Amino acid sequence: MSRGKQKPIPYSGVPELQLLPPPSDRLAVVDPGPDVLLTSKAAAEIEEWLEGWIYSAKLAEAAVSAPGPLFLHGPPGTGKTAVTKMLARRFTDVRPVYVIDAMRVTEGYLGATSANIAKASDAAIRSGAALVLEEIDTLASNRSYGSSSEVENTRATTSIMRVLELSGPIVLTSNRLDVIDLAIIRRCEYIVEMPPLSLEQCRTIVTQVLGEDPGYISLSLSVALPLAKRAKRSAVL
Predict the structure, then answer these.
(1) CB count, 10 Å around CB of 19?
(2) How many CB atoms lie within 10 A of CB 119?
(3) Can you say how many angstroms the Cα of residue 47 is from the centroid of all Cα atoms in its chain?
């Protein structure tokens, strides 16, 4: 499916969605939000992942698998949560987006946290939703054995690894890539760094797209920068 060059459309609010309640009390609906100003590399990778799932049925017809999990990492305040809200808006009329955060699944009983992660994730994917696991560095740091808390961390890490094998759109976010178990990182097809943007970088990106330097605009990822599509998926889409 070829797409011609589009003109950016100023953001004027998000649609009012009538969403069904999440299938688990461990899940919360991700509210839709505007597009996010990103580096060219992050924008291209996120757009490719998103379109791979929006057009997953077409990919399946061509015997091409949908994208694997998307991992967003970077310091606090760089837009990871904002990207999940953007994904929720872009998935409108396709699928809901649910989020699990550490506060909703963590419990003091041994094995409870990992069980909560597994049950909530399975419920989300079975319902056809996209699943976001936020701040997984609080749940899935490098595995080690010793105290009961370390054993529980190992159980939670193993549970998340199994979640990543589910057949559905899955997004992970973390402030600390360096503490995440490597087995989880290896299971993610898209590992997107989200560094903080300086004011000058923001102005440069806007100028590249529009040829001018506006004081405020919300950029659409579909027109922000040229996308470096992977050859096989690009041929199908």
Answers:
(1) 15
(2) 16
(3) 11
